[in-house]
């Protein structure tokens, strides 16, 4: 049986630099095919070629054995290929139902009818999203659900998911993979890109590994294991470096002085009377399901959002009550928050690395009449590119041109430029390749070793367990449990997060 | 004035009714509940080491821990005790003065005007440090003093140094119920119960108190030296949002103090469950799947170990559902930590090698 999709010797060059080089790829009918590789390996480029968002420089794409050339995504959509992008493509001002039906509206539309249809459709996918809610008001996970629902509703023959589970809870992931299997049974072929290798190994029929824009390996998932995939991805054995340290008996850092005390903090129904402390010289992990109030708590501390106006609780930094209406005074006091959504909140994508770093340096030290010192800007960029091992030609490189892992390093460097005493990482390795994960983890550990108070918010349990010296578990807007690194296990943490 | 009014309206600043969390080194456990009973006695209070033996105060009696026998009785309840290396004992008597019991049995009273309401005593070399909880009330009226002081009121407590044969020296005043003193190096660390903090005092009285540990989640009581260089701190009751709220409501407190028996006040306590009239504690209601505590506990047992920078490194707890509450004193001796649970009518013993940093 011929494959439903075949790519032969595909090459895509940007200004003479090959993003993918002579890559051949096949997708069988009713197959789940995982595409894995480090950031910058060429996965997104390859799938964008399939979806018609990018034209290949050379090579052939065959659909049902016939050559095709998609000039725009609509061509691919008409041919039955839909893609759910990592950066979602929803219209924030419209409701969930309107987004799902966008482009498929009838001449006369009744909102009630659209809402009911959307509600039924979302329920059939086991997605708990209110169809009447504005997309702008949804969190990252719920937006992802709407994006997936929209792709599924288009009844495509081939669906491409780019990092579909990055922001989903374990329960939502379970529903998602069940949905993927249902789609497969109904004859749909699926390509999904994921950095969570366990997901690929457990759910895919075949796995293709790309490295530096080139095809490395395609094999049945049953023939592969985690170590083999990582070896193919990075060309060396990295698994132990990332999540094996804990098992090897890592020493837990001693608690330093109390830097932050959060007392009875409240913000609407998202943060409810929560209290906890953060200590210098330690990594305090914070785990909770989506909606458990982790991010909101961190944002209140950093002045990104405000606590309740009446009796909103207290935040004490070095035993001094602080209340920030905007982030700038928090930064000046030494609190920085590294966002979970780097693309929206993390950097100015069209500015250079140096420009991004300099803005943060000015926010800490400069006033409104500060002038940009180009020499200082370049010095900063050079220093932090070296310190963070950012892979870029030089400090003038635009952040948008970097891979996800390197973008994340820029976001972290931006925070460290501000010489914080408390740094809060929110999902520091989301959408980051395994090579960069190891480097980011090493950097976070180094910060704690240097005496800084570090908070790491993560939905990925192995990451939390491996990085943290103590672990706080949040549920329904408050910290409900605390574990030491020695006591923590995935089962105990998850139990506390759910029950 | 305006700031205070705004804070009160919004419930922020000094009017924020919050309590610090018990986490990190203060993470709750059952170590006091599971501890071995060294001796059951009525309201055991101040533990001291005298002549190689552990003594404790219980009502009017000073008793030996090992046998429970009475070493000496006084005509008033004992508020606090300290033992000097030369065999002298200093005993603070409730609603009276501090007396020095010489090794040969002679009793020498110190001036009542400067030693009334003694809550804690400690010898530093030959001199005696006297913590005076309040200038308004006696030591057994601590609850009344707290209710009259409120959350933001000025304290009337003080610390006085009595050099042997010398003139007494005031080291600090306007303290909020000093309840423990421990000489550390050339300075003296003092616990201030109503301020939930520890302060360092200069024995010369030249410099103002320097806070070294603030925002404790309970009411600190006595301090004792730890064998490895740090210190032990007893905490006799927990802070709760309910009591913090009451401490900010002057009118409510005035009426409660004038009309209700002190045992039934909404205030910290050493023991609970002794009368059906006292406020219920530990009650909760599950509504819409959310547990809503409506009667937070007023009693607790907590011992904290501090390192040499006064940072907590481990703790022992008797939680709301326990009985070994009202821990007012502790003493480390012979690889054992002895804890007096005044509310639980028991002295506990815990081998120190079982205690590891949290």
Main attributes of the structure:
heterodimer; A: alpha/beta; Rossmann fold; six-stranded mixed beta sheet; 20 strands; 24% strand; B: 358 residues; mainly beta; Neuraminidase; four-stranded antiparallel beta sheet; 5 helices; 10% helix
Walk me through this protein's architecture.
Chain A has 499 residues and is an alpha/beta fold. Chain A folds into 2 domains: 5-243, Rossmann fold; 258-498, 3-Layer(aba) Sandwich (Rossmann fold), CATH 3.40.50.300. In chain A, 35% of the residues lie in helices and 24% in strands. Chain A has helices at residues 43-50, 73-78, 96-100, 111-124, 140-153, 170-185, 197-203, 226-234, 239-243, 294-301, 327-333, 342-346, 353-365, 374-387, 404-416, 434-449, 461-467, 490-498; strands spanning 5-14, 17-27, 32-36, 58-63, 66-68, 81-84, 158-162, 189-193, 206-211, 214-220, 258-267, 271-279, 283-288, 314-317, 320-322, 335-338, 422-426, 453-457, 470-475, 478-484. With 358 residues, chain B is mostly beta strands. Chain B has one domain: TolB, C-terminal domain (Neuraminidase, 6 Propeller). Chain B contains 5 helices and 26 strands. Chain B has helices at 2-10, 112-115, 142-149, 241-246, 250-259, and strands at residues 36-40, 44-50, 53-58, 61-64, 70-73, 78-83, 89-93, 98-101, 107-109, 118-124, 127-132, 157-162, 169-175, 178-184, 187-192, 197-201, 210-213, 218-225, 231-238, 283-287, 290-295, 301-306, 312-318, 327-333, 336-341, 346-351. In chain B, the strands form 7 sheets. A 4-stranded antiparallel beta sheet of chain B has the order 1-26-25-24, with no helix packed on it. Chain B has a 4-stranded antiparallel beta sheet with strand order 2-3-4-5, with no helix packed on it. Chain B has a 4-stranded antiparallel beta sheet with strand order 6-7-8-9, with no helix packed on it. Chain B is globular. Chain A binds chain B through residues 254-258, 261-264, 275-277, 279, 309-314, 316, 319, 321, 323, 470, 472, 476, 479, 482, 484, and chain B through 10-13, 16-21, 23-25, 27, 214-215, 241, 290, 309, 311, 313, 357-358.
């Amino acid at each position: 049986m011929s494959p439903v999709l075949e790519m032969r010797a595909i090459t895509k060059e940007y200004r003479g630099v090959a993003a993918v080089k002579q890559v051949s790829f096949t997708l069988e009918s009713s197959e789940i095919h995982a595409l894995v590789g480090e950031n910058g390996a060429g996965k997104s480029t390859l799938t964008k070629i399939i979806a018609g968002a990018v034209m290949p420089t050379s090579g052939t794409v065959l659909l049902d054995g016939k050559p095709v050339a998609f000039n725009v995504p609509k061509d691919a959509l008409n041919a039955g290929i839909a893609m759910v992008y990592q950066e979602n493509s929803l219209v924030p001002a419209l409701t969930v139902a309107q987004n799902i039906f966008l482009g498929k509206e009838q001449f006369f539309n009744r909102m009630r009818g659209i809402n009911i249809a959307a509600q039924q459709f979302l329920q059939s996918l086991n997605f708990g999203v209110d169809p009447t809610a504005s997309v702008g008001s949804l969190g990252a996970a719920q937006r992802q659900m709407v994006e997936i629902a929209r792709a599924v509703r288009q009844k495509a023959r081939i669906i491409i998911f780019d990092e579909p589970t990055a922001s989903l809870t374990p329960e939502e992931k379970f529903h998602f993979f069940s949905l993927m299997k249902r789609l497969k049974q109904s004859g749909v072929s699926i390509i999904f890109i994921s950095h969570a290798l366990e997901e690929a190994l457990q759910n895919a029929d075949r796995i293709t590994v790309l490295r530096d824009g080139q095809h490395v390996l395609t094999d049945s998932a049953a023939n592969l294991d985690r170590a083999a995939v990582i070896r193919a991805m990075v060309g060396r054995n990295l698994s132990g470096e990332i999540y094996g340290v804990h098992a090897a008996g890592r020493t837990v850092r001693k608690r330093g002085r109390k830097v932050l005390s959060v007392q009875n903090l409240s913000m609407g129904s998202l943060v409810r009377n929560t209290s906890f402390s953060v200590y210098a010289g330690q990594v305090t992990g914070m785990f909770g399901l989506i909606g458990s109030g982790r991010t909101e708590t961190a944002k209140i501390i950093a002045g990104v959002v405000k606590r309740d106006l009446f009796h909103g609780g207290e935040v004490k930094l070095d035993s001094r009550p602080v209340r920030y209406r905007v982030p700038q005074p928090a930064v000046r006091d030494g609190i920085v928050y590294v966002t979970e959504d780097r693309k929206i909140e993390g950097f100015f994508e069209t500015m250079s690395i140096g420009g991004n770093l300099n803005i943060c340096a000015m926010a800490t030290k400069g006033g409104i009449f500060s002038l940009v010192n180009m020499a200082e800007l370049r010095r900063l960029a050079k220093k932090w590119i070296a310190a963070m091992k950012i892979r870029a030609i030089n400090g003038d490189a635009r952040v948008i041109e970097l891979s996800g892992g390197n973008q994340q390093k820029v976001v972290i460097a931006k925070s460290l430029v501000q010489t914080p005493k408390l740094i809060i990482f929110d999902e520091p390795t989301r959408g980051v390749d395994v090579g960069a994960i190891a480097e980011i983890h090493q950097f976070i550990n180094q910060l704690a070793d240097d005496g800084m108070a570090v908070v790491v918010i993560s939905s990925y349990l192995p990451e939390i367990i491996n990085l943290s010296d103590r672990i706080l578990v949040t549920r329904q807007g408050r910290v409900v449990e605390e574990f030491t690194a020695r006591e923590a296990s995935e089962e105990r943490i998850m139990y506390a997060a759910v029950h | 004035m305006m700031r205070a009014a705004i804070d009160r309206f919004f419930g922020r600043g000094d009017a924020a009714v919050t309590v610090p969390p018990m986490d990190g080194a203060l993470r709750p456990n059952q170590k006091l509940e599971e501890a071995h009973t060294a001796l059951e006695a009525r309201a055991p209070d101040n533990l001291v080491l005298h002549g190689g033996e552990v003594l404790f105060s219980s009502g009017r009696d000073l008793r030996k821990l090992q046998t429970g026998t009475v070493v000496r009785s006084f005509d008033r309840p004992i508020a606090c005790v300290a033992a000097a290396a030369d065999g002298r004992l200093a005993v603070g008597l409730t609603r009276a003065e501090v007396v020095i019991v010489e090794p040969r049995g002679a009793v020498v009273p110190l001036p009542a005007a400067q030693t009334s309401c003694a809550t804690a005593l400690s010898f530093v070399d030959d001199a005696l440090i006297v913590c005076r909880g309040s200038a308004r009330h006696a030591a057994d009226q601590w609850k009344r003093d707290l209710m009259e002081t409120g959350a933001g009121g000025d304290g009337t407590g003080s610390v006085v140094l009595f050099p042997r044969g010398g003139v007494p020296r005031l080291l600090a005043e306007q303290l909020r119920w000093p309840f423990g003193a421990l000489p550390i190096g050339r300075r003296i660390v003092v616990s201030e119960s109503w301020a939930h903090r520890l302060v360092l005092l200069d024995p010369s009285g030249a410099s103002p108190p320097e806070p070294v540990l603030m925002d404790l989640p309970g009411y600190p009581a006595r301090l004792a030296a730890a064998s490895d260089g740090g210190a032990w701190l007893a905490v006799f009751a927990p802070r709760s949002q309910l009591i913090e709220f009451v401490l900010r409501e002057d009118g409510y407190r005035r009426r409660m103090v004038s009309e209700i028996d002190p045992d039934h006040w909404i205030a910290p306590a050493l023991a609970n469950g002794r009368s059906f009239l006292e406020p219920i504690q530990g009650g909760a209601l599950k509504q819409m799947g959310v547990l809503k505590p409506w009667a937070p506990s007023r009693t607790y047992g907590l011992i904290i170990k501090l390192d040499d920078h006064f940072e907590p490194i481990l703790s022992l707890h008797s939680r709301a559902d326990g009985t070994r509450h009202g821990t007012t004193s502790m003493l480390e001796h012979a690889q054992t930590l002895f804890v007096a649970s005044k509310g639980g009518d028991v002295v506990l013993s815990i081998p120190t090698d079982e205690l590891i940093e949290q």
